Amino acid sequence: ATRITDGGTEPVTERVVEETPVVLVYNRVPHVVMMATPDDLEDFALGFSITEELIRSPADLQAVRVERFSQGVEVHATVAPECDPVIAARARRLAGRTGCGICGADSIATVLRTVHPVKGEAAIHPAAIHRAMEALGDRQRLNRESGAVHAAGWASVDGSIVLVREDVGRHNALDKLIGAALRQAIDPAGGFVVVTSRASFEMVQKTTVLGAPLLAAISGPTGLAIRLAKEAGLTLIGFARSGRLTAYAGASRLAAPEDR
Q1: Half-sphere exposure of 94 (CA within 13 A, CB side)
Q2: Which residues of the chain have pLDDT under 50?
Q3: Is residue 100 flagged as an active site residue?
Q4: Is the pTM of this model over 0.85?
Q5: Residue ranges with strand state E in the chain
């Protein structure tokens, strides 16, 4: 690459993150092509399968095999035969673009799926959310090297970051995180999710499928995301940066400043 400054130009070596077609194949039948960073694909397969409600539980995903080719990746998932009708009914008609979680869905009902009420009675301090967002930035290895990916993190109630996953697509990063959390049997009521993106409807939907009580985003939410969060009982935080945050839903779950 060539770096251009006021002082002239110079050749530089830069780390560039990959954006690769990833084909998800269920029981030998292709389902969808997603543009994704080709890392942590076993986590992605489980997280996507759960949040898209293609399988009923992690146990339904019986095996995952990743095949890498020169122009893309195939992720072969073996799932319980009982899941085949649901997967066939929700087959995508288009490739999923980077950061687009619902591309190819062919009906409103497919997009606006069942609301998943969330639990989690522990009060979460605003300071813990800020601690987690700051720590998430420190744990973004790919973004530190390339400046081109989103991250999703799982934090304990005190704000300690436990898991981080990165991807060029914000939905993919969250699916990878959810897959990793499920594979490690993390209690979803015992922490919260932080993301380096806006809080779209589908980011909220995926978080509620996991069962986490709070989603904190560095940017703002959409109106539909707020309505879904309120319906599900999710605490939805936006603009969690620079020492402030805004609670758009579920503010009662936040500990009052005098409780710290």
Answers
A1: 11
A2: 93-94, 105-108, 259-260
A3: yes
A4: yes
A5: 2-5, 8-11, 20-26, 29-36, 61-69, 72-79, 150-156, 161-167, 191-195, 214-217, 235-241, 244-249
The active-site residue, picked from 54, 79, 100, 129, is: 100
In whole angstroms, give the CA distance from residue 170 to residue 61. 23
Do residues 88 and 60 lie in contact, with contact meaning Cβ atoms separated by under 8 Å? no
> Is 213 within 8 Å of 157 (Cβ atoms)?
no
Tokens (6 digits) for 142: 């790919």
Q: How many CB atoms lie within 10 A of CB 148?
A: 15
The reported pLDDT for the residue numbered 107 is 46
Amino acid occupying residue 50: I
How many other CB atoms are found less than 10 A from the CB of residue 210? Answer: 22
CA distance 189 to 209: 12
What is the structure's pLDDT at 45?
98
CA distances to 1, 102, 105, 114 from 108, rounded to whole Å, are 44, 10, 8, 12
pLDDT at 140: 87
Cβ atoms 140, 149 nearer than 8 A: yes
- Residue 124: how many CB atoms within 10 A of its CB? 24
Contact between 110 and 90 (Cβ < 8 Å): yes
* Residue 240 · residue 220 · CB < 8 Å: no
Q: Which of 192, 87, 185, 90 is closest to 132 using CA atoms?
A: 192
pLDDT of residue 178: 98
Closest CA to 125 of 37, 171, 192: 192
